[in-house]
Design goal:
By secondary structure, the protein is an alpha/beta fold. The chain has helices spanning about 15-35, 50-55, 90-105, 110-125, 145-150, 165-200, 215-225, 270-275, 295-309; strands at about 1-10, 40-45, 60, 65, 70-75, 205-210, 230-235, 240-245, 280-285, 290-295.
Length: about 300
């Protein structure tokens, strides 16, 4: 059985080296299934020994160079290893993903979605690039790199606990995330095509009616390109209800192009029915970005009332 050695640094680890190794494992696994590598055992070695590094088949986040032909993916050398189109510097994850992402996903479009959603944020953090400004002093989002960071903690009472074992656990976790994100992104590509078709065929382009429970990541991107849409009506996943959702001014903000009416805010049940005149009205969020009805027709009526107010 052939053994492939993946080499990375020892000591503390971060999201970039964890996800880079996870990506390589997915790539090797896919090629093994195709029969390219045959039966292969993957060995992950964490070291800073130059002699051991030189014997690696794939070297990640160490090695002092970025040479894809030699399968060396480091970004710590003087001058770094280049930047994404938007200027975010590459970390080891981004370099590995650039090399193998399309092969793993089977689609450049899917690989591109994951690059923007997952790869670039990790690359940015690893290179000390801020992606957001804090609104509340001392309170920040709990990022993916924070989640990976907890694996660096080894309780004193944990039998057999060490950083190498925890690194392996973190890589398994990252592999699972990548697999799921690949499938989600494949769906997202198809969902966007559907939303685009619905928009183009809609007579009323202020209220867009989707007959499928499409997540915001898909309909928000598509409808955000057009000026008319104010509300989306779609099934409320996991129930028989239908929901009205406000279209945001910007994809990554919570400001709406138009809020639901002020008098609906926080109302539910019979009280909301009396205010709106729409039978089956169930709930309106007090922040006025979502309302729910028990039928499609009721949700459409709520949306169109909101457009007129």
């Amino acid at each position: 059985m052939k053994k492939i050695k993946i080499i990375t640094h020892n000591g503390g680890f971060h999201a970039d080296d964890v996800f880079a190794v996870a990506t390589i494992k997915l790539w090797l696994g896919k090629n093994c299934r195709r029969g390219i590598f045959g039966k292969t055992k993957i060995e992950i070695i964490r070291t800073r020994d130059v002699g051991v590094i030189a014997q690696g088949d794939i070297v990640v986040d160490i090695g002092g160079e970025y040479t894809p032909a030699k399968k060396i993916f480091d970004h710590h050398q003087e001058g770094g290893a280049g930047v994404h189109d938007n200027g975010i510097p590459y970390s080891s994850f981004g370099l590995v993903w650039r090399e193998y992402g399309e092969s793993i996903c089977g689609s450049l479009e899917v690989a591109g979605l994951i690059n923007k959603k997952l790869v670039q944020p990790i690359d940015a953090v690893d290179n000390g690039v801020d992606l957001c400004e804090l609104v509340y002093p001392g309170v920040q989002p709990y990022f993916l790199y924070n989640l990976i960071g907890v694996y660096n903690f080894v309780p004193k009472k944990e039998k057999g606990g060490n950083l190498d074992n925890n690194f392996s656990k973190a890589v398994d976790f990252a592999e699972d995330i990548l697999r799921r994100e690949i499938e989600i992104s494949k769906m997202e590509v198809e969902e966007k095509k559907y939303v685009e078709q619905v928009y183009q065929n809609s007579e009323d382009r202020e209220t867009i009616i989707l007959d499928e429970d499409i997540p915001f990541n898909s309909w928000g991107v598509v409808l955000g390109q057009y000026r008319e849409p104010l509300f989306v009506v779609k099934p409320d996943g996991g129930s028989k209800n239908w929901k009205v959702k406000a279209v945001r001014k910007e994809l990554f903000s919570f400001g709406n192009r138009k809020d639901l009416p002020q008098e609906w805010a926080g109302k539910s049940g019979n009280e909301l029915v009396q205010i709106t005149g729409v039978e089956g009205s169930i709930f309106c969020h007090n922040k006025r970005f979502i309302a729910v009805a028990n039928t499609k027709e009721g949700a459409v009526e709520l949306a169109r009332l909101a457009v007129e107010k």
